[in-house]
Every structure is written in structure tokens, then in C-alpha cells.
Amino acid sequence: MKNFTHIFILCLIAINGYGQENFNLELLSNVDVGEDGNDIWGYVDSTGLEYAIMGTRNTTKIWSLEDPENPIERASIPGPRSTWRDIKSFEDHLYVTTDRGDAGLLIIDMSMAPDSISSLYWHPIFDIEGSPDTLDKCHNLYIDTDDGFCYLAGCDVSNQGVLILDLKNDKKEPVLAGIMDNNYSHDVFVKNNKMYTSDIFIGSFNVYDVTDKANLVYLGGASTSRQFTHNAWLSDDEKYLFTTDERANAWVDAFDVSDLEDIRFLDRFQPAETVGTGVIPHNTHYFDGFLVTSWYTDGLVIVDANKPDNLVKVAAYDTETVFTEDFEGCWGAYPYLPSGLILASDINHGLFVFQPKRQDGENGYQRACYLEGTVTDANTGASISNATISILSTNPNEENTGLSGRYRTGQITPGTFGVEFRHPLYDTETRTATIESGEVTILDMQMKNYEITGTVKNENGDPIEGATILIENTNEDVNVVILSDEEGNWSTRIKRGVIYTIYAAQWGYKGSFTLLNFVPGNTVDFILEEGYEDDFFADLGWSVSGNATDGVWEIAKPNFIFGGGQTTQTSNDIQTDLGSTYYITGAGGNSIGGNDVDGGSTVLTSQPMDFTGYERIDFSYYLWFSNLPSTNNPDPNDFVTVSVTNGIDTIELTRDDQNGSSWSSIIETSVDISEMEFNDNMRIIVFTADREPGHIVEAGFDSFKAVGFKATNVIEQTNLGISISPNPTNNFIILRTKWAWEGEKRIVIFDGMGKVVKEGELTNPTMQIELDNLPSGLYTMQVRWKYNRSETVKFSKI
């Protein structure tokens, strides 16, 4: 036995670079059980002696807590080897489920404890609707100690719902009193004849009236935030229900269940220190206005739930000091011992015994300080959603406003602090607030922003209606999309003092951009050159069809995914085009096979192009294609194709069936009038499909251009495959070109406002261009040669 005693932590001490901090919990002891652990429960015998009961991979262990700093092992009861055990108590007996093997329900007699502890495995045969069924295993259980009924969840009987056992007459030989068999129930909670089931695979909790155990009545239910409902626990006044979803980056949710015909979501909580790192919540328990939650690799987390619409962390202890995004660390917690001690079980590190401590050193739980208010627009008075509010202290905290502009936040430490209000489109504001334990402080905020206007016209000075304007700053998380009106005018409101990239695009024109350090009163006008090109920084009306069930085409900057020794999805856009997004088959995946193409085809089709009167069309674009096998289908046979159609005939331009891990080189291909009649309904079609179940199919499409040639050989548009590197750069770029063209070649470099900042002759197919005298910013470089031919690329200098 290994004990760590008198570890008393009141200040915030970081455990590691990723985990949460330990505070307001004193560690009294830690017992290493020598194998993986699972759930935990507490028990008090007739003399008042407290016990800890913990499941391990092979046993159920029982310790007495005469001295909480030195638990004494009183029993170790073997059972089927299982990852899952769950424990509850009724009077002087313990009941333990095991979700592996065929031993049935473990019943432990504690009436003679600690001197003598006996046990048996109860292995009944139930008659369910005239069919015999043997109880071999269950995932979970709950016992309503007020009326003596045990509720077994997720058993291998019937449809794995809930079995209701009557324990009152014989605690070692329960009687089947009823069954809820609608769904697989992962967990269950019961109070005052209302049963709350956690139906994990349908992602909701459901409530039943179980007054008549043989005739259950459904009362209501609701989906939880990540739709993987793992457990639920009710407040003492039965008004509020708290749930967990056993998913990476999930929350504890709070619901108002006082009216089961009108269940209302109130708030959700996750530790601010590890947001987005993949940490998983497991089981939450309500105790006297607080939530005591086992949070796997975040350890034990205590949240003040006295205001269920404003959940605030008030204590924590990280039992797993090695950070991982997996099912490791704290499995269970038990806060109901009369002494006030909290028991916790850790998969890797065994039994923990804690004493809750307030910041004043007294035993017990500490209430949070609450800060609440409304954020509105200073110009219009309208509510501002998605504003971020942070109390500027050492306590990690952050909250966002909802659609009503309301925010509710708080922290454990009282005092006077600065409060910062941030929003991508509004000036950041800071105010001061004094907050107190258990009290609500109101702080409202009015935020300011400013109008920016502009126009979009063609080369003849005619207005372009419906042009897409994208205002972007990735550092500030700004991504505003607006459309020009019938006069070509556009306007919106943004924050000042930020450098924005502003793009303009419309189908049938070449995209354009400018770099702007915005001050109030700025006007940005665009003149768009006719042509068919799309860098997919905006939605210019390409349509998506097909029958794939997942992984359909969408414009996005997807997650980077690496697996099977290669990149299966890249987050990198083509460096030489406008914007940072492209068309990808499913952007929401986080791992191989997550949101790839499944169950059929996905087809991307452009808007029509008018090439009437042209004799040749040159196309250029970039493709991404990744194709990995499955276990059952080791030879992937999927592909991506790019085709052109005039509405009657279709010609395949490119077919790629080779598994790759990067963007292709620029693909350049042509169609001649002898191959297809050109008209005003020319379209590009990009097709890919999952042809065999289980194959990993990912595709990307970007930087599209179509160039028409007439008989006079006057080039209306062109594409020369020019490339530059590095990009972004510091002091120079290397320009690589093709020598398939004659005459003098020149380069012209423009800054973000369209001003020429550098020009000269291009004397070699590969040439280094010095940029020492140019400030940081976004630039456009144009390569020119005879017949007024030119090609434009963009780069940024840092």
C-alpha cells in the first residue's frame, strides 16, 4: 500500500503543461491497487465507520476509513475480468455489476463488517414476455434507497434497457418488478418514482414515471449537447438535471426539468484550462449545490451549481499527471460520506481520499463569485452574440454571450478585477468589477464598431450586383461576407485599428483583393476584370449533388489529418491563390475516416460559362486525392475526375486514382472546338465516390481557371503556371517560370493598395527577387510579356 498524506493545496499549482491546476482539495491518501481501476462508491456501517468500495479490472476492493490517511483493505472479491464495474448500496448490502463475463450480479453482505464480509453472485433466469433469459452481466445500476428498488442498466437481457428489482423482502434474492426496454440505457438515476435514463446511443436522457413498476409511463426527455448521454444526476429539489457526454471536448450540461413537458437547457461547463485538448468528462454527481465530476485525464473537478444557469469551477485535483486524450485518469467520484470526505478512483493510480477545503482553510465547499450582464451595440442597442468575456485574474475563465447578448460567468476568488469584453467586429473594452463569494455582480457593456463602405464595378465602370465581399483577419477571427447591391455598393461595420484582407469576387470575373489597416471613413473600391476563375475564398454558386452519406463537397479550411504513414487531408490552401479555403470532401473530420466520402458519390458542378464563338478552352486547377484501403477491401479502387460539359456532351479532363498526400502540381489541359461544341452552358464537374465500403476517400479542388481562345489567337485570359517560394517570405522570393513564351519579360510588384513598389526585367526562368526594402504586408506580383500577356500571383512578406 502506498499512501501520500497531508498534501494540502490551497493555491493554484500547475501539475503539467496541459492539465488543470489543483486547488481547494486536500489529498489525504492515495492507494495504488496494482491494476487498472474503474468505479467507486462509499458506505457507512451501523457504527458510523466509513468505507471506500472500488472496482478494479479483476476484483471489487473494500477499505475501511478509520484513519482516512491510511485506508485499511478489508476485502478483495474476485470476479470476471472487466474494464467496467459499478457499485451501489442498500442498507447493509452492496451490489456490483460487471459488464463482462457471465457471473451475474455481485451481492456483498456488509452486516458484519469490518470483521467479516461475505458475498455471492446472483445469477437469475427471468421470464420476460414468456421467454426465459439469464442475467449474466450489466453495465450499470442505481438503487433508490428510499423505496428499496434496484435499477439495472445495460444488461444482456431483452433489449438492454432497465430491469427493476425489488430488494425489500430479500436483499440476496431480489424479485423482478418491471422493465423499461425501449432503448439501451447506459446509466440510470431514480428519485421519488421518476426514473432518468441515460440513453447513450440516441444521445438523450429520458424520464419515466415508475410508480407502477409493471406499467411505466414516459414523461419526457431531451438531447444532451454532444448527443452521447453517459450519465445524469438530479438536484436535491428535483428541479435540475445534470448530464455528461462521454466525448472528447464535451461538457457537463444543466437542464431545468421542473416541467417535463418543457425541459429547458440552462448552461454547460468544461474546464477552461484544457478546452480543445480532447479531454473527456465521465460521471457527474450532485451534492448540496455542487457537481462533483470525474473528468478522466483532468482528474476530479468540482463545480458550483447553486445557480444552474451559471456553472463555475470551485475546486479540482488532477489525479492523472500524464496528459493524454484517452480514457485514462479519474473514473469515478463519491461525495456523500457523512464526514464530508470525497472518494475518487483513478484508472491508473487507484484510490484517492480528499478533504474539500475553502480558501480560508476551513473544511467544506466554497461558493463561486458570479458576474453577469448584457452586451449590446453602442450604435443600435441591439444584442451582441458571441462576445467573449474574461475576468482578468489567475483563475482560468471565459464565457461567450448568447443570441440575447446575455453572459453568465464567474470564478472562485473574490475581489476587484478588470473584465475584458472582446468581439471580432467590435473594439475591445475593459471595465472593473468587484465580485464576492455567493453573490451576483451585474456588469453590462455597450461595444463600438465603425462603418466601412465600397463599390464593385467592371472594367467599363458598370456596377456589379451580387458580388461577394469577404473581409478577413484570421488572427482576430474575422470572416465577414456581404454582397454588393444593384448599384455595386456595399457596406458593413467592423472594428478599427486592424489590418484586414478584403476580397471581391463574382462568377464571370477574376477575383481581387486589397490589404487595409482600417480607420473609420475608409472606402474600398474594386474593379473586376472579366474571366472565369475561382479560388473558393467565397461561395460563387457551385452546386453539390450525389448520394454520399458523409464527406460531401464543401468550402472550408479543413483539419490536418495524418495517418497510415501519410497525410490524408491537408489544411493548406494553394499558396498562390486568393483566400485560405478550398473545396474539400468533408471538412469536419479529426481522424482518418472521419467525415471522408462514405456510401456513394459526391459531385461538384460549376455555374455555367459562356464560351460561344471560342475555338479552344484552356483549363487549370489543383487536385488533392487520398485513397486508403480498409481491412475487408485492401485494394482501393476509388478515383476523382474533373470533366467539362456543354449540357449535352461531356469530356473527362483529369482522372486521378493514385493515393497521394499533397496537392498535385498545377493541372493544365485543353478542349478544342473539334471535340465539343462550345456554348453558353459550359460547366465543370468534379466527381468522386466511395466505391467499396470502408475505403478512406478524400479529395480537394482549388484555384480553378478557364481561358478561351478565338481564331485570331488573341488571348482573352491565360494561365502560365508561375510559382513563387517561400511564401510567406522574409527578404526574398524565388520566381519559377516556363520558357514557352517569347519576347521581353518584366515583373511588376504592387502593394495592398495597388501601388507599384518594384519592377524590372525577368532574365532567367528561375530568378531570386530581393525584397529587403519592402515593409511587411500582402503583395501582388504580375509577370508580363508581349501580346499583353500576363500572370498574377500573390505573396506576403513578414
> How big is the Rg?
33 Å
What about the largest sheet? 6 strands, antiparallel
Give the percentage of residues in beta strands: over 45%
Strand count: 68
User: Kindly state the mean pLDDT as a whole number?
Assistant: 88
Give the termini distance in whole angstroms.
58 Å
Class of secondary structure makeup = mainly beta
Determine the fraction of residues in helical runs and give it as a percent range.
Answer: under 10%
Q: What global shape is seen?
A: elongated
Tally of individual helices:
0
Uncertain parts? 1-17, 712-719
Topology:
Elements lengths: L6 E3 L3 E2 L6 E2 L2 E7 L5 E8 L5 E7 L2 E6 L7 E7 L6 E6 L2 E6 L6 E5 L8 E5 L2 E4 L2 E4 L5 E5 L4 E5 L8 E5 L8 E6 L6 E5 L2 E6 L4 E6 L7 E7 L5 E6 L5 E6 L6 E5 L7 E6 L13 E5 L2 E5 L5 E5 L7 E6 L12 E5 L7 E5 L3 E7 L12 E9 L10 E5 L6 E2 L5 E6 L3 E9 L2 E10 L4 E3 L2 E3 L2 E9 L9 E6 L4 E6 L5 E6 L4 E7 L6 E6 L5 E6 L3 E3 L8 E3 L7 E4 L4 E3 L2 E4 L12 E4 L15 E5 L10 E13 L11 E6 L4 E7 L10 E6 L10 E7 L6 E14 L13 E3 L6 E5 L9 E5 L5 E6 L4 E5 L6 E9 L3 E9 L1
Parallel strand pairs: 34-40, 34-41, 42-48
Antiparallel strand pairs: 1-4, 2-3, 4-33, 5-6, 6-7, 7-8, 9-10, 10-11, 11-12, 13-14, 15-16, 16-17, 17-18, 19-20, 20-21, 21-22, 23-24, 24-25, 25-26, 27-28, 28-29, 29-30, 31-32, 32-33, 34-37, 35-36, 35-38, 38-39, 42-45, 43-44, 43-46, 46-47, 49-61, 50-55, 51-54, 52-53, 54-61, 55-60, 56-59, 56-61, ...
